[in-house]
Amino acid sequence: MASQGTAIVSSLVRYSISGDVARITLNDPDRLNCFSEQLVNELHKALDSAESDFANSESVGHLVFNAEGKGFSGGLDLSGLDNESDADLLLRLVRVEQLLQRVRYHSGATMALVHGACYGAAADLVLACRTRIATEDARFLMPGMRFGIVLGTQRLRDTLGETTAYRLLDRIKPFTAEEGLAAGFVTALAEPPEWDNVIANNVTLARQYTCEAYATRMRVLTPDSRDSDMAALVRSVTDRSIKQRLSAYVSSMKEQKRKSKSA
Predict the structure, then answer these.
(1) Three-state secondary structure of 76-96
(2) Dihedrals φ, ψ of 16, to 5°?
(3) What domains, with CATH codes, occur in the chain?
(4) Residue 126 CB contacts under 8 Å (≥ 6 apart), including other chains
(5) How does pLDDT run across 153-186, given as a tens digit for each residue?
(6) Cα–chain-centroid distance for residue 2?
(7) Beta-carbon neighbour count of residue 3 at 10 Å?
(8) Distance (Å, rounded) from C-alpha 83 to C-alpha 37?
(9) Residues 161, 162, 163: CA angle, nearest 5 degrees
(10) Which of 117, 144, 134 is nearest to 195 (CA)?
(11) Are 63 and 22 in contact (CB under 8 A)?
(12) For residues 106 and 63, is the Cβ–Cβ distance under 8 A?
């Protein structure tokens, strides 16, 4: 069993551990928990803490992600785009990919508890978890391929299959939790009052394994595409100016909102 009652509060991420469960909470609700450089760095630090706390545990450790506020996350923070270079954006996206890989290949159990909006890199984080719980009001969208960023795309195909990956990536509007469940993107629906029971049930299920057996299960069932995923991301970002592509995407989104308001 890991440490009891340990809690770390940073400005944008909360980390706490009790028994076999480490809770990592996105805590920037005023900005819809967007994936800023600082928030991503704090998520890495929370994972460092979890890995340290679970290092000598005799039972399977559980990483559980959730978020404060009206939604899980609006995705990558583009608010400071004018002040960032292509190199800055490349580094930020590489750090996100490193985060996703740490979660995807974590030797213990991983779970995301999602409510409200969950877009872009945040949806990729959810997909990196093996248990993906959503409330009925959860909505998902992965727009990265619209501006040519290959982030989590191969994991989506490996997890859900090629046909389903195409269908979800082609969505113009967010898909619902029910649609995500039908596609396999979501593994179960549950409202926040039920979440503690969902976690407890997963902890009970994992106790049939030793830590070594659970880690072996992950290695055998989860294709290791870390090198190819990172290479695909870097190629997609450096092919041509990522700043120009993101700026064009932001402008198009603003124009769509303007037209919808005037309609």
Answers:
(1) ECCCCHHHCCHHHHHHHHHHH
(2) -145, 155
(3) 6-213 (3.90.226.10)
(4) 65, 72, 112, 114, 118, 132, 140, 185
(5) 999 999 999 999 999 999 999 999 999 999 999 9
(6) 24
(7) 15
(8) 13
(9) 100
(10) 134
(11) yes
(12) yes
